[in-house]
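Postdoc handover notes: sequence design on the structure in folder B. Input tokens:
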């Protein structure tokens, strides 16, 4: 956060707020393919980094975790 309390969108701040598909999979104890499926189905917004790899905003992942999607998917 900067002095005004707003997140900056430069440097490593963006990387800290983004998670890889694998990180999300470990958190939910599912496969990376499941995470990709959630993104395709619109359950988890996906963004791409500068090299085109999928990333997920930490806030979106936390909201999904609280929603209990994993429990419903089994």
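Designed sequence:
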């Amino acid at each position: 956060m900067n002095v005004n309390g707003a997140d900056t969108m430069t440097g490593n701040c963006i990387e800290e707020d983004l998670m890889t598909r694998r990180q999300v999979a470990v958190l939910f104890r599912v496969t990376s393919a499941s995470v990709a499926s959630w993104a395709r189905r619109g359950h988890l917004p996906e963004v791409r980094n500068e090299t085109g790899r999928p990333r997920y905003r930490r806030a979106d992942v936390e909201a999904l975790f609280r929603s209990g999607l994993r429990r419903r998917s089994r």
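Context for whoever picks this up: DSSP finds five helices and three strands in the chain. Don't rerun without checking with the PI first.
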